[in-house]
Amino acid sequence: MSEGWEKLQKLKDRQSFLRNPRFLPLNSQQGGMSLIRPRTKVKAEIKGFLIFSRNILIIFPAKEPIPVFLAKPSVVVFTDYSVGNIYEVCFRLKNVTSSSRHIRVIPPTTPYFSIGLGRFPGEGGVVAPGMSCKYTLRFAPDSLGDYKDFIVVETQAEGPFVVPIEAWRPPPILTLPRVLDCGYCLIGGVKFVEFLCQNVGLSTGTFCFIPKDEWPASNFRSLARTYFSEQPPFAVSPSLFVLQPGEATVVEVVFFPTTTEKSCQVFTVVCDNCQVKDISIEGEGQLIALELVSVSGGEEPPVVGEVRDLTAEHFIRFSPCNPHSVQQKKLVIRNNVHLELPFHWQIMKPNLHPLLPGESPDASHIQFHLATDEVFHVSPSTGILAPCQDQEYLLIFCPKELKDYHSVCHLVLRDIPQLPPEPSDSSVIIMEIEVKGSTEPYQILLEPYAIVIPGEIFICTPTSRQFKMWNHSKTFICFQWERINGSCHVIEVEPSSGRIEENECFDFSLIVTGGKAEKIVTTLVCHIQHHHEPVTLAVEVSFKVRLNHTISVEPSRGLLPPLASCNVDVLFKPHSCQLFETELELTVENGTGCHLSVRADVQSSHVCLLNCTLSFPELYVGASATGTVTLFNQTLLPSQFTWMAHLQGKQASLCSATFDPSSGTLGPNVSMEITVTFTAHTDLELTEVAAVCEVQGMNSPLVLGIVAKPKKLSVSYSVPGNKELILFVCSLPEFVSSLLAHGKGAAFFVTPNTGTLGAFESRAVDVTAYTDIWGEYRDHLICKVGDLKPVLIPIHMTVKGCPLYFQMTGPRAQDQNQGPIIQFGTHVSGGDTVSRSLRINNPTMFDIRLDWETYNVDQNDCKLLDLVVAFGDAFPLKDADGNEVLSSALRLSSLNETAWEKTRTTDSEGTSASLQSSTKKLISVHIRPHMGNLSDYPFCITPQQIVIPAKSSRAIHVSFTPLTLSGAARESRCVGLALGFMSLDSELAACVPGKVGRAQGLDLEPVRVDLLAAVQTASIFLFFLQIVVREFDITQSFQLKNTSEMPLHFSLGTQPPFSVVKPKPRGPTSTSRNPPSADSQSLVLKPQHSMRVKVAFHCSLPLLDQVEQTDEEIPSGVMLIHGANGQMKLRFEQNLLIHYSNNTLQTVPLCAHLDLPALRLSAVSVDFGLCYVGQTQTREVNVYSCGAHMYWKSITSNHKSISNLFFSALLVIHSPLVKTSVTLQLRGTGSFDEMYRSS
Predict the structure, then answer these.
(1) In degrees, to the nearest 5, what angle opens at C-alpha 200 toward C-alphas 194 and 201?
(2) CA nearest neighbour of 844 among 742, 751, 996
(3) Domains of the chain, residue spans
(4) Which of 557, 819, 858, 979 is surrounded by the fewest CB atoms within 10 Å?
(5) Domain 619-706 indexed as CATH 2.60.40.10
(6) Structure pTM?
């Protein structure tokens, strides 16, 4: 029984084969292995698999199928396309399993995408593990819209997977809002509103405005037949436009309402990329609506039976007034429309026509005529009514005559649209205001109306009387009194002119001065402005002569003979100041006497100060100040004046003053300026100080008050802003060198450092900074002025630049961090290292350490920034072996920490951050522009860390190791740069607490050296010159030319039967001194030079043996060629080997054809027949060479003498190029018979 089961199991085992893993799912037990799934154990979670592989954590869902192929890219995207073109893109399908797989791709479903035949890495459409097959996907759009499709990829997995296809252009984006608000517009009007439309997207778009009810359309260009797209009451232009990215245009919307309602229309904006956007355009039509809100004083109702204008809506009456007076009323008119309305006022004559109650005015009675009286005005007369705001107007009534005035004020709006069939006039009378006003005469009253002076008054003595004038008018009056100034008398009113307000009175003085003893009755006239009749004042007065004892006449009497004359002395002795006038009467006995008028102006000395107080607003203790006062002589008499030397007052002892001039004479009616020099000896305010001036003839002196508030000495300083200096290192003169000899890196020199500062004087002090090293410097400039406390002026200076300079470039004023540009030239690929020596000078007082880094610059590098993270010191101090010196770094760190802590405790709050840096940073992060790729190949600087001693120099070596080019690259340009980061190892050099702080390393701009070189493959061009044939050797000359910019070191070689013989340099400027040599000779060919090389082909007999060898025995490079005519030749192929010094090899093919000639004789034998003994016979036999020139020689052998007269011999012809010799049989018979003797 068990045997039967075993046989049955064996039978089943023969049929139960292992399945090919490619046909099993990857998640099965014996399935193939995935290349993207790690082989480590899987830790199961609740909803998936958590896989740990090195530092990568990958989570796969529990039931997610394992992919067999991956598409790259995973989504095929087209982003830039236009209609009518076809676009292609390649995508790959990669086999990510460990078994070879078949694949099937189902094309896209839409007609816009098509797929080409796949390209497989092998035959039969099988993709090996890790390999990819490529497909080309074509895209032919018929519009600029978005497209989506997919490609189905069927594999041997459980189900197919899909590769999405997307086509979309970055859409153009317009800045137009969703709602375009046109605002308000009057019915019948047209409003143009402009909106700026900009395309802020990344692609060009063509846009079309169409009404929404016309969309969709098959071709929107057919809709844009006109410039405007209209949908009443709106129109949009342009209806079709194109905008490039960033381009803008103006979209104009026209709004023409016909009804008083809010209108809204929807327009569709269609883009040629099939995008559609609805935009609403809104606007509201309005009618004109004005309202008279208020009138100052209110509107007065008309009187019953009063005639009014037929069309006026409002009535305003002015109260009665006097002619040429002005009345105003304020009108407030409200604009109830949301629009600006231009207006102007017209003053018209009223349309007066009596109407019965309920009767409507006849249109023929309504006429429009401008008023001509010009008494009514409206201000402003023209302007613009603001939207929904009140406008104030002044209605002015200014009558000129005594009568009643009646007019109508029309408010006219301009540019008002009218709907048809209204008239086309754009001006509309929107409001009519009827105005009336009346006038009445002035009411003026004198109280009393006449002035009578009783009794008699003395002549030459002014006499005054008081009276009043009342103004009972409606407005003020302006008066002007006339003056009676006759030959004898003067009558006048004071004041003679002025203004009297309404219902007020004014007091006047009537002044009468007689000049002759008599009685006067007259009328004094007063003129009232705008009053047609003057006001008169009646005056009655009597004058008499006064007896005066102050005048005496010598002689007072006497006898005068006929026709004689006599001198009379009139003596006047006044007792007081007065204006004296009198008359002397001469009495003649028995004759007619006469009168003599006497006048005198009696005055005394009177001098005054035009300014009684002298103030010194700017006065300092101990410093003199000057001021001026003016003396004025008010009389016609000369006056003597003298200033007292000592000041008066309680505070006179605290100050002093001098006067210039201190005394003098003032002429009649003359003013003189006196210069007062005042000095205060205290800082107390001086208010009780006076200067006294005595004037001869005056009872009391003149007193000048002096007021001052002295100030202590004060000096102010004006300091400019911070200065950023660029370090300039040059040959310093001895003066500057002495300033910097202290070794602190900077010095300040002040000019002038001493001097005198005058009062209110400003003086600029130049502070010159000398420096020889970078850093941020802080110090104080101590300024001492007089007895004032010293002032500390802070000095802050930031110095940038590089003190180091290269010997080959010298110091620079600009771009100090830029070093020389080192050009290594062109070198052969893989050649020897080239080095340049650069000497760097340090003119400072400190040792400066340079840490060099070299970078390679790639022109295709798109990186913009470098993030540099440093742990500890970015450039630590290293020993000679390049190891970091930890002990010195820690010691410097601790010292810096102590110094900075001291700085923080002693410095002020204004100290900069660089001078208040805390302890050493553990981690520092720097962001800088991308320099290149850090590498010490092919450029390198040794030593990488070097210390330039103070006032000394050191040399560095910049080396270039040529690259080794690979593949088809023939030339490579190497661009690099070296950055030298400066550091200071000395504590005092890096920081002086509170004074100096210097950045180091990455915080400081490094020294830059640009490096340029080129690498070319070693290559020589050969030119054929000539062929020389000598015996068995053929020599061919070549010319080698070095077309590169670098010298080439090489040697020539070849293999037999070729050889190189005696190469010779040649060239017009060649300086090569290589002697002729054999194949192994090392040669040098300079740039753009040439050299002649001879290559020889040696023909030898062993070469001919190869003809008889079989194909297997013939060596490589040799071939036997059979011609059509049976001719044979040997072809020899070898290479001319050019061995360069960089171990590269250039081969030049050499080929030689060796023709194999054949010898042939024209006869096989020659029989001379019977010949006379002793006589020579000659026969000609032609030797033919078939195939080539050859050398031959003949040998006669096998001489046989059959008898004494019969001879035979064998002539053998040998040639080195013919293996088998050619023979010629010779025969001849001798005879003594003379008949055979030739003549």
Answers:
(1) 135
(2) 742
(3) 69-167, 179-286, 290-352+367-439, 444-544, 619-706, 798-810+830-1016
(4) 557
(5) yes
(6) 0.42
